[in-house]
């Protein structure tokens, strides 16, 4: 899988907080990819040193001294960039501060600084970038470097305003996406949410303790985040990564860090965080492409449910092309056979297995056949899913049952069987649930009201499984991959003609885009997992028409 950065070569990118840590790593990665990077930060000496380091790279780095807590500084920086470098195509809002303070007895000035940098400064920089993009008809990309603490409050001593600022960033990313959708420019917005990384944002009191965790790959480095930014920018123009949440497989460091000033009701020291760590992308960057490695999966067994069409079909094709032995499970054996024939000359191989995901016996028999004939399971892609046209107020019980049996129970049974096999064979495998944006936010979609409930259940199942595997000290990974609407057979026939034009206009993403996401997720090194990957179309104007149609 090769992700292209060609369209950004020679374009201007602005990176805030570029003097150290994640910002410096992102700036360096973008310069290596051929971009003209304006690095904003207060410490000009560090920016100058970075510029000298990058002087012989494909792109160029331009230091711009800027205090992100001051609007005048930000405005002057953007003015200089527009006058000296040209139109802005990419903005990476990376600048952030921590601030040691409490809520019960905190320092107002520290609170102000956190909000001025993490929230207000981000908003001002975003506004200026979008103004410039719209004036120059640029289909640009805004990336907010968020945090896992922007989605769930964590236990971290004397940093209680920091999660609030990051929750605000989460909301700002989504409200901006909706705002841009109404304005109809094709500017992308991505929230990239890691746990802590080895940077200067950590208080000095933790530096020595964190050192061994970094060495043991339990906390990741700034360069890994930069790789994620390159992946996000590499997606096709009509596809945007809405949310990329990344963490380490091994989070045992949480229990090793002691906070003597914070204890629970039993008087035991609390760990550092409720959900901390980080991700890495193992990649090789050559000129303007990002090559992700799948070498460790070649010749290994992957099971893909719902493999006869749509997303499952595309995933099976992608994995066979990568050299995996793929067991494709579905009811329509004729389609599986046709796909196996189509892939007969590829690097890997597809094995069709007729399976009804509503029947436990079928699932168990399928896994039994795979184990006896192909070998240990290394990957499970839980893709099978159904919608079912029915309401809640006057619904059909059998449709409800079928939706839950496939989307929730069948997924759970397949996951259990895969994990049993992985643990029995000491395989550090990977489970990927093909979820949906409907698993995170209820959407207005006519007569598919149990579908969203089933996908909310999948979101919970992914996280509870991650926590369960963590308690078992297993290094099996779990990922929730949540697409927006995809051009598949899951749409009711009543919408086919209406959706046709949106598919042609790239307003609905293709199954292959999801398959690319699966390959990306599987390409991360063993100690790293992508917890949540949300992929949707940049232009979703079709949603308003679907909603209008639902009322007729």
- Which CATH top level class of the largest domain fits? Alpha Beta
Largest sheet features? 14 strands, mixed
**What fold name goes in the CATH topology slot of the largest domain?**
Rossmann fold
Rough outline: globular
Q: Architecture of the largest domain, according to CATH?
A: 3-Layer(aba) Sandwich
**Structural category:** alpha/beta
Question: How helical, in percent, are the residues?
Answer: 40-55%
Q: How many separate structural domains?
A: 2
Number of strand segments: 17
* Portion in beta strands: 15-25%
Spans of at least 5 consecutive residues with low confidence: 255-287, 545-552
CATH H-level name of the largest domain... which superfamily? Answer: NAD(P)-binding Rossmann-like Domain
Mean pLDDT: 84
- Rg to the nearest angstrom? 24 Å
What gap, in angstroms, lies between the N and C termini? Answer: 44 Å
Number of helical elements: 16
Q: Strands of the largest sheet, in order across it? A: 4-3-2-5-6-7-8-17-16-15-14-11-12-13
